[in-house]
Design brief:
Length: 250
């Protein structure tokens, strides 16, 4: 297979970190992007020494940084054929406790960040012959989970954006899909989930456990792979132990 490269955001931690590892094993050249430069440098050390990995410190809300990244990708010798928008921030507040500022901040990172990167990198992919974009949404963008006014609304926006982009970018030879993870053991979740939250997830997930970042990375790798997912676009793949499928559980 000829060399191809892919940009992964949120690459220093959790799902993004596991995704970088998985894509490297699939033979991708990976541009790992995160706003936390030191953590990104540390995380790069976890991947195989011979892997085709470059890192780039970038906040996905930084428009000029995004333009510079697109320019770098356009000039790079290995053609850009993929983008995984994994950078995201959480919020857990009841509706009446959610501030407009919080709502704007979550949209800025979780929605506008993914939108702006996609808009900047899609033409680079098209010039290289096409590619795949995967957004990391959430089951909270599909179901009405308590305390997720800002977070769930931002992920719901990504779900709809996925479908619209799939329609508009099909002619650009770009497939656009999303993965909607259920509860996944990552640093974000270890910080945010109390014992009571964990109990509630175990009660409502049919498989009765949290997922791993590697289980999400597998789904992302599939959707990115032109050989395996060549006719898949506009889909929201829930990787959630059955959470979104479930109804009565007892
Ligand atoms: P994490 O906190 O372990 O990793 C997120 C990474 O994104 C961090 O390295 C952080 O520095 C980076 N990041 C945050 N804001 C950024 C920005 N503005 N620019 C560049 N990088 C930025 O989180 P985790 O759990 O791995 O989450 C990854 C994605 O998966 C997020 O979009 C999250 O909403 C989503 N997700 C996670 C679930 C979970 O249970 N862990 C469930 C559903 C969705």
């Amino acid at each position: 297979m000829s060399a191809r490269s892919i940009v992964v955001t949120g690459a220093a931690s959790g799902i993004g970190l596991a995704t970088v590892g998985r894509l490297l094993r699939d033979g991708w050249h990976v541009v790992a992007v995160d706003r936390e430069g030191e953590a990104l440098a540390r995380s790069a050390g976890q991947h195989d020494a011979g892997a085709k990995l470059t890192t780039r410190t970038l906040d996905v809300t930084d428009a000029s940084g995004i333009a510079a990244l697109a320019e770098t990708c356009a000039q790079a010798p290995v053609p850009l054929r993929g983008l995984v928008n994994c950078a995201g921030i959480p919020a857990n507040a009841r509706f009446f406790d959610t501030t407009a500022e919080q709502m704007r901040r979550l949209y800025e990172v979780n929605v506008v960040g993914a939108f702006a990167l996609s808009q900047a990198l899609a033409p680079v992919m098209t010039a290289a012959g096409g590619g795949a974009i995967v957004h990391i949404a959430s089951v909270s963008g599909i179901k009405g989970n308590l305390g997720r006014s800002a977070y769930g609304a931002s992920k719901g926006a990504l779900v709809t954006l996925t479908k619209i982009m799939a329609v508009e970018l099909a002619s650009e030879r770009i497939r656009v899909n999303a993965v909607a993870p259920g509860p996944i053991e990552t640093p974000m979740v270890r910080e945010a989930h109390t014992a009571a939250t964990r109990e509630e997830w175990h009660r409502t997930v049919p498989m009765r456990r949290y997922g791993t970042p590697e289980e999400i990375a597998e789904a992302v790798a599939f959707l990115c792979d032109e050989a395996r997912a060549s006719y898949v676009t506009g889909q929201i793949l829930a990787v959630d132990g059955g959470f979104t499928a479930a109804g009565l559980m007892a």
